[in-house]
Amino acid sequence: MTIETLREQMVTAMKVGNKFKKEVLSSILSTAKNMAIEKGCKDNISEEIVNTAILKELKTATEMLDTCPSDRLEQLEEFTLRIEILKEIAPTMMDKSEIERYVIQLVEENNIELITKNKGQIMKVIMPSLKGKADGKLVNTVVQEMLKNG
């Protein structure tokens, strides 16, 4: 998602009076701007930065939901709604079979032997190109399974 699209959605949420969605989108904008400043590109915020910000906000909201006491119904509802909004705009993540194909392709292109059982070497090659496209835990699981099965 582009920063412009995110701003447009925030303005639309304000116009229709959806204060909660506006706050969620505003939070993503703020996170994206901070990430861009850290990378030294505050005037040119890329889609990658925006998507990373969305995923970061989604991870935070999920962690908040998981750690929220079950008797705090209002907070649980708020976190759930926040997660729903974030999932609507989050980039599509690769599934297990797509990750497997991608890993095989990268392993072949970089002449990495799966039999060497060097997970660190494989992950070092794979993760930079999958950042924001696939869940790191799932990638780790796929690589472990592939190494186990040779």
Detailed description of the structure:
With 150 residues, the chain is mainly alpha-helical. 75% of the residues lie in helices and 0% in strands. It has seven helices and no strands. Helix 1 runs antiparallel to helix 2 and helix 3 packs antiparallel against helix 4. The longest helix has 21 residues. The termini are far apart. The model has no long low-confidence stretch (mean pLDDT 86).
Short description:
Helix content is 75%, strand content 0%.
The average pLDDT is 86
What is the strand tally?
0
Helix fraction by DSSP (H/I, runs of at least 4):
over 70%
Which sheet architecture does the biggest sheet show?
Answer: none
Write the element-wise H/E pattern from the N-terminal end onward.
HHHHHHH
Structural class of the secondary structure composition?
Answer: mainly alpha
- Tally the helices: what do you get? 7
Radius of gyration (Å): 19 Å
Distance between the termini: 37 Å
- Overall geometric form: globular
Attribute tags:
single chain; 150 residues; mainly alpha; globular
SSE order and pairing:
Elements: H1 3-15, H2 19-39, H3 47-67, H4 73-89, H5 96-109, H6 119-130, H7 136-149
Helix pairs in contact: 1-2, 2-3, 3-4, 5-7, 6-7
